[in-house]
Specification:
The protein is an alpha/beta fold and about 300 residues long. Helix content is about 40%, strand content about 20%. It has three domains: about 90 residues, Winged helix-like DNA-binding domain superfamily/Winged helix DNA-binding domain (Arc Repressor Mutant, subunit A, Orthogonal Bundle); about 100 residues, Periplasmic binding protein-like II (D-Maltodextrin-Binding Protein, domain 2, 3-Layer(aba) Sandwich), CATH 3.40.190; about 100 residues, D-Maltodextrin-Binding Protein, domain 2 (3-Layer(aba) Sandwich).
Length: about 300
C-alpha cells in the first residue's frame, strides 16, 4: 500500500508534526480539521504504522512518527528541489543556446552529437551557431550575445570556465605555393624563426595568442611579424598567398579557407590542438546549464581523432 502514498498526505503529516495541533495545521494548510484527520488516517493505513498518538488534549508523534518525519522531510525537500529545478529549466528553454564559432569546420561530429542529445532531452530547447568576429572572438561571449564559444586551449581566465576536450586538430603552416617551405612534406616549428608570420589584430587571452602566434620557437629563437596588421581571414589568406608571411593555423581553418596559391603543411613537432567549449562562470542562462549537463554526461567518451 505504501506505493499509493500521495505527496499531499506527506505534506499534511509534516505540517501536523510541526504544529502538533489539528486546528493550527488546518489553518496553515487552508483545510478543514476533518480533512487533516482523514489524510492522516489514510497515510497511516497505507504505511501500516501509527504515526500520531491522539488524546483529547494533545497530539504527539509516536517513535515511528518521529523517524518517519525525519526521513520523509528530507525526501520531500529533495523531491521539491528536483521539481522546482525542472520547472525553472522548462520555463527558460524557450531561449536558444547560442554557440560562437569561427568557422563551420569547428562543428565536429562530437559537437553535433552533443547538440542532438540536448535537443532530444529538451524538446523545447534549441541550439544556434553564431559566427564570431575575427578580431574579438571572446567579445560576444563576455557581452552575453553567445553562451558558449568553441576555442582551442590554453584558456586561463578567471571569469571563464572550460569544458572537456571535444576534439583535436592538426597544427598546420599556411605557406604560399611558391614559398621555399612549400617543397617539403612538412615543416618544423623552428622554421618560424626563419620566415615572418602575420601580425594578427586579434583580441584574445594572451595565453591563447602565444599558442596561436608564438613570439619565439621552443629553442628560444624570435619569431618576427611582417606586413600591416591583419584584421580578417581573407587578409591573412592573401598575405600568405602573396608570400609576405607564413602562418600557423589549425586544420579547421585550412578546411574552411582555401586559395589556389596557398598550401597547408603539417607542423611535425607540435601536438594536435585541443578544442573545448568555454562559457562565462556568472552566466545564469537556464539553457546553458541544461546543455552543460549533456556535455558533462558525454565527457568520458572519446573526442574526435585529430583531423
Amino acid at each position: 500500500m505504501w506505493r499509493h502514498v500521495e505527496l499531499r498526505e506527506l505534506r499534511v503529516f509534516l505540517a501536523l508534526a510541526e504544529e502538533l495541533h489539528f486546528g493550527r495545521t488546518a489553518d496553515r494548510l487552508a483545510l478543514t480539521q476533518s480533512r487533516i484527520s482523514q489524510s492522516l488516517r489514510d497515510l497511516e493505513r497505507k504505511l501500516g504504522l501509527q504515526l500520531v498518538a491522539r488524546t483529547s488534549r494533545r497530539v504527539a508523534l509516536t517513535p515511528a512518527g518521529v523517524r518517519f518525519r525525519e526521513d520523509a522531510g528530507r525526501a520531500l525537500a529533495a523531491l521539491e528541489d528536483v521539481l522546482r529545478a525542472a520547472q525553472e529549466t522548462g520555463e527558460q528553454l524557450d531561449e536558444p543556446v547560442r554557440i560562437g564559432i569561427l568557422s563551420a569546420a569547428q562543428i565536429t561530429p562530437v559537437l553535433r552529437d552533443v547538440v542532438a542529445a540536448f535537443e532530444v532531452a529538451h524538446p523545447r530547447g534549441t541550439v544556434e551557431f553564431v559566427g564570431l568576429p575575427f578580431a574579438d572572438r571572446f567579445g560576444p561571449l563576455r557581452s552575453g550575445d553567445v553562451q558558449l564559444v568553441v576555442t582551442s586551449l590554453p584558456i586561463d581566465q578567471p571569469d571563464l570556465a572550460v569544458g572537456p576536450v571535444l576534439s583535436r586538430h592538426r597544427r598546420l603552416l599556411a605557406v604560399g605555393r611558391t614559398h621555399p617551405l612549400a617543397v617539403g612534406p612538412d615543416v618544423s616549428i623552428e622554421d618560424l624563426a626563419d620566415h615572418p608570420i602575420g601580425d594578427l589584430a586579434v583580441a584574445a587571452p594572451p595565453e591563447l595568442l602565444d599558442e596561436m602566434t608564438p613570439r619565439q620557437t621552443p629553442s628560444g629563437r624570435p619569431v618576427r611579424r611582417a606586413g600591416a596588421p591583419i584584421r580578417h581571414e581573407s587578409e591573412l589568406l592573401l598575405a600568405v598567398a602573396g608570400g609576405t608571411v607564413v602562418q600557423p593555423v589549425l586544420a579547421p581553418f585550412a578546411a574552411t579557407l582555401q586559395h589556389p596559391d596557398v598550401v597547408y603543411l603539417p607542423i611535425r613537432d607540435l601536438p594536435p590542438s585541443r578544442s573545448v567549449l568555454v562559457w562565462r562562470r556568472a552566466d545564469r542562462h537556464r539553457g546553458l546549464h541544461a546543455f552543460l549537463q549533456v556535455v558533462s554526461a558525454r565527457a568520458g567518451r572519446p573526442a574526435d581523432p585529430a583531423d
